[in-house]
């Protein structure tokens, strides 16, 4: 069984760049068929749930142990770029929207800074992060939040618009940035 597991891991590494720490059998069962065979999010280089949508994947930088779009229903639009740090988790139905339409012409986009998400960040269910926002390291964004402004490191932020409600203890899990 270990040989099969190793061969699957090597096979999947050909299609996915960053599957460190992920179970290859789970990836094969849940994403490989829909992503690489059926073509849902075919050009994304990390595992993505078949109900999630990733636009402009070449403009997304993803850290170690981060799989944006792994949860169901995520919408990730990276027209102006998105930088995602190590160990970032997105809950179901989270939206990352890096570009807005021009108000006088819906077929044109407004250039802006990329979305930047630091290390060890959790974004709760149904939250939206808008263009040009920077989220620091070790942050929790509460469910149903709309992030329109920068969020500092070591904080918990909630609401619409999202505001910091308290400081957070340092992250005690594995620091993938130092591996």
What does this structure look like?
The chain has helices spanning 2-13, 24-37, and strands spanning 53-55, 60-62, 75-77, 82-84, 88-90, 95-97, 100-102, 105-110, 115-117, 121-123, 128-129, 134-135, 139-141, 146-147, 155-158, 163-167. It starts with a helix and ends in a 12-residue tail after the last strand. The protein has a 5-stranded parallel beta sheet with strand order 1-3-6-11-14, with no helix packed on it. A 5-stranded mixed beta sheet has the order 5-10-13-15-16, with no helix packed on it. A hairpin with a 4-residue loop joins strand 15 and strand 16 (163-167). With 179 residues, it is of the alpha/beta class. The protein is built from 2 helices and 16 strands. It has a single domain (2-169), classed as Hexapeptide repeat proteins (UDP N-Acetylglucosamine Acyltransferase, domain 1).
From the structure above, extract its key features:
five-stranded parallel β-sheet; 179 residues; 2 helices; single chain; UDP N-Acetylglucosamine Acyltransferase, domain 1; globular; alpha/beta
CATH topology: UDP N-Acetylglucosamine Acyltransferase, domain 1
Which secondary-structure class do the elements indicate? alpha/beta
Number of strands: 16
Average pLDDT level: 86
- The rough form would be described as globular
Q: Given the structure, what is the number of helices?
A: 2
**Number of individual domains:** 1
**Strand fraction band?**
25-35%
Major sheet description: 5 strands, parallel
Order of helices and strands: HHEEEEEEEEEEEEEEEE
Which CATH first-tier class would you pick?
Mainly Beta
| Low-confidence blocks of residues | none
Determine the N-to-C terminus distance: 28 Å
- Rg over CA atoms, rounded to whole Å, is 17 Å
Question: For the record, what is the CATH homologous superfamily label?
Answer: Hexapeptide repeat proteins
Query: Helix proportion of residues, in percent?
Result: 10-25%
CATH architecture assignment: 3 Solenoid
Order of strands in the sheet with most strands: 1-3-6-11-14
């Amino acid at each position: 069984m270990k040989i099969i597991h190793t061969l699957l891991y090597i096979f999947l590494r050909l299609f996915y760049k960053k599957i460190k720490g992920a179970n290859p059998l789970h990836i094969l069962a849940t994403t490989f068929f829909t992503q690489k065979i059926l073509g849902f999010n075919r050009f994304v280089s990390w595992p993505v749930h078949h109900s999630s949508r990733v636009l402009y994947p070449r403009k997304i930088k993803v850290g170690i142990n981060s799989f944006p779009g792994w949860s169901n229903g995520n919408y990730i639009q990276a027209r102006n770029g998105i930088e995602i740090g190590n160990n970032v988790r997105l809950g179901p139905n989270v939206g990352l929207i890096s570009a807005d339409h021009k108000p006088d012409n819906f077929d044109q986009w407004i250039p802006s800074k990329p979305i930047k998400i630091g290390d060890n960040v959790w974004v709760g269910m149904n939250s939206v992060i808008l263009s040009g926002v920077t989220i620091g390291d070790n942050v929790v964004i509460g469910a149903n939040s709309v992030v329109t402004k920068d969020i500092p490191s070591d904080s918990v932020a909630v609401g619409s618009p999202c505001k910091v409600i308290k400081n957070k203890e340092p992250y005690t899990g594995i620091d993938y940035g130092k591996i």
